[in-house]
Automatic annotation (TrEMBL):
Domain Large ribosomal subunit protein bL25 beta, first and last residues per copy: 98-175
InterPro entries according to UniProt: Rbsml_bL25/Gln-tRNA_synth_N (IPR020056), Ribosomal_bL25/Gln-tRNA_synth (IPR011035), Ribosomal_bL25_b-dom (IPR020057), Ribosomal_bL25_C (IPR037121), Ribosomal_bL25_long (IPR001021), Ribosomal_L25_dom (IPR029751), Ribosomal_uL5_bac-type (IPR020930)
Pfam family, one: Ribosomal_L25p
Annotated protein name in UniProt: Large ribosomal subunit protein bL25
Assembly behavior: Part of the 50S ribosomal subunit; part of the 5S rRNA/L5/L18/L25 subcomplex. Contacts the 5S rRNA. Binds to the 5S rRNA independently of L5 and L18.
Keywords from the named record: Ribonucleoprotein, Ribosomal protein, RNA-binding, rRNA-binding
A GO cellular component entry from the record: ribosome
Known role: This is one of the proteins that binds to the 5S RNA in the ribosome where it forms part of the central protuberance.
Annotated spans, Disordered: 184-206
SUPFAM superfamilies tied to this protein: Ribosomal protein L25-like (SSF50715)
Length: 206
């Protein structure tokens, strides 16, 4: 489990969120059912590094001024242009109680025919925090046009309950997109014009 170091956020004119961000901090909040909202700050570089090493849907250790909390990343706010994290919300959890979260669906391989398309990018689950998988991976090797992969086809580890219907489609194999009749006709006309132009030029030379 990845650890994130934080500090209680000091109050005052010199500690505005803009000032914190300029100095490499991300303003954040940690909260839970047994604690009030606490305004904290975490180092932007350290937070980025932790999120690269571990999926955001898994639990983290948040250490704030010597106090350690088991938390989930509830929300990350990013700058609309640069994409850097400008605020983070952490929710305190109990590692012995089930949590609800979502797990991404990933594809590997290539169909025999057609193109595999993700219909659902995430699947909702319920389990103990320590059992959360980073993703569900589906191999589409050998599939053909018209084939589908259902939720029921997932390999689900023990202790995980799915929050979606087993008959829902995750992946569908579709035909390669054909050219429209208009584009085919336009291409044919262009070829005819080119041929006619070539014939005219050749007759001029003769």
């Amino acid at each position: 489990m990845e650890a994130i170091q934080g500090q209680m956020r000091a109050q005052g004119m010199g500690n505005s969120v803009k000032s914190l961000r300029r100095n490499g901090w991300v303003p954040a909040i940690v909260y839970g059912s047994d604690m009030s909202n606490q305004e904290i700050q975490v180092q932007a570089k350290e937070l980025d590094a932790a999120l690269r090493r571990q999926a955001t849907n898994k639990p983290y250790k948040l250490v704030v001024d010597g106090n350690t909390y088991d938390v989930m990343v509830n929300e990350l706010q990013r700058h609309p242009i640069g994409g850097v994290i400008i605020h983070a919300d952490f929710k305190k959890i109990n590692m012995n109680e089930k949590v609800h979260t979502s797990v991404p669906v990933l594809m590997t391989g290539d169909p025999e025919l057609g193109v595999a398309t993700l219909v659902r990018h995430n699947v909702d689950i319920s389990c103990l925090p320590g059992n959360i998988p980073e993703s569900f991976t589906v191999n589409v090797d050998g599939l053909n046009i018209g084939d589908v992969v259902l939720v029921s086809d997932l390999v689900v580890p023990p202790g995980i309950e799915l929050g979606v219907d087993a008959t829902e489609v995750l992946i569908s194999v579709l035909p390669v997109k054909a050219k429209s009749e208009e584009s085919i006709e336009a291409q044919h006309e262009a070829e005819q014009v080119a041929e006619a132009a070539g014939s005219t030029e050749q007759s001029k030379r003769v």
